[in-house]
Automatic annotation (TrEMBL):
One of its GO terms (biological process) is carbohydrate derivative metabolic process. The lineage of its organism: Bacteria, Bacillati, Bacillota, Negativicutes, Selenomonadales. SUPFAM superfamilies: SIS domain. CDD domains: SIS_PHI. NCBIfam families: RuMP_HxlB. This is 6-phospho-3-hexuloisomerase. Pfam families: SIS. PROSITE patterns: SIS (PS51464). InterPro entries: PHI/rmpB, SIS_dom, SIS_dom_sf.
Length: 185
């Protein structure tokens, strides 16, 4: 049994899941991101890793983008946006941060796999990924992959697709983005 079989299973799952994402929610998130002063990205575990990769591309686009919890991350204020990724939508620390962001007049975009969760009730816009959460038994969605892999892969590809749309809107290109990439490496 070769790896190609498993790659195709993953790609098929991704194709189905990405096509089920509500485009209107994504367009609303893009509209909020375009207007944002600072953008903060928050998530734990593998979701946090996907969030970091989105923050990096936003930085390459010239956005003031930060990862919550890092030493040099500044304060969130009116006009800023928090993007919170939580498959379950219930992780306490993430819920608290989303509430805090709202209390400072920030806008909140949720990337979640749980349609009616605490995070979706707090967020200004929720992008729901129809994939299992880390506790697959509690989820309405199925995947052959372990835990929340399909959700995590989906947010990576969704965020990269959002970057392409933002690049088109801002007439941004690869060369300009590369100039903003770290030169201390
Ligand atoms: O690391 C995580 C992952 O689901 C493992 O597949 C989670 O993102 C992390 O444990 C936080 O949970 P959620 O808030 O449900 O994303």
């Amino acid at each position: 049994m070769g790896i190609r079989k498993y790659e195709n299973i993953v790609l098929d799952e991704l194709n189905t899941t990405l096509n089920r994402i509500d485009e209107n929610a994504v367009e609303e998130a893009i509209r909020i991101l375009k207007q944002a002063n600072k953008v903060f990205v928050l998530g734990l575990g593998r979701t946090g890793l996907m969030g970091k990769s989105f923050a990096m591309r936003l930085m390459h686009m010239g956005k003031d983008a930060y990862v919550v919890g890092e030493t040099i991350t500044p304060n969130l204020e009116d006009g800023d946006v928090l993007i919170v990724g939580s498959g379950s939508g219930e992780t306490k620390g993430l819920v608290q941060m989303a509430e805090k962001a709202k209390s400072y007049q920030g806008r909140v975009i949720a990337l979640t796999a749980t349609p009616n969760s605490t995070i979706t009730r707090i967020a200004d816009v929720s992008i729901v990924i129809q994939a299992p959460t880390k506790n697959k038994d509690e989820s309405d969605f199925v995947s052959v992959q372990p835990m929340a892999s399909l959700y995590e892969q989906s947010i990576l590809l969704l965020c990269d697709s959002m970057i392409l749309e933002l690049m088109d809107m801002a007439e941004e290109n690869n060369d300009e983005m590369f100039k903003r990439h770290s030169n201390l490496e």
